[in-house]
Every structure is written in structure tokens, then in C-alpha cells.
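Sample intake sheet
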Amino acid sequence: MSPKGVASFGLKDLDWVFGVWLLLVIVWNFGYPGASPTLDVLVALILFFVSSYFRT
């Protein structure tokens, strides 16, 4: 039971753009395991902005 006015978070709240972003981040991490942490963050940010573009 949640307090009044507070929405519970569930899988239905995740949209398809986030799902695609998450899948691409996972593919990146397994496809390029030797990438530096800086490159990992950079690619995740690039994928985030690309996915944000498709959300609009």
C-alpha cells in the first residue's frame, strides 16, 4: 500500500526508448570489454542523447 499521491514504479513505467538505450549499453559493454571507463561513460551519454532525440 503506497501513500496517497505517490505512484508506484513498475515495468510499465519504462518506455521503449529506455529499453533500446539499455540494450545498446549492454551490447557496448560486452562488445568492447577493454574500453576505458571514460569511454564507457561517453558512449552511454551519446546513446542517451540519441535516445532522447527519438523520444520527442
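Comment: Residues 21 and 47 are 6 Å apart (CA to CA). The chain has one domain: 14-55.
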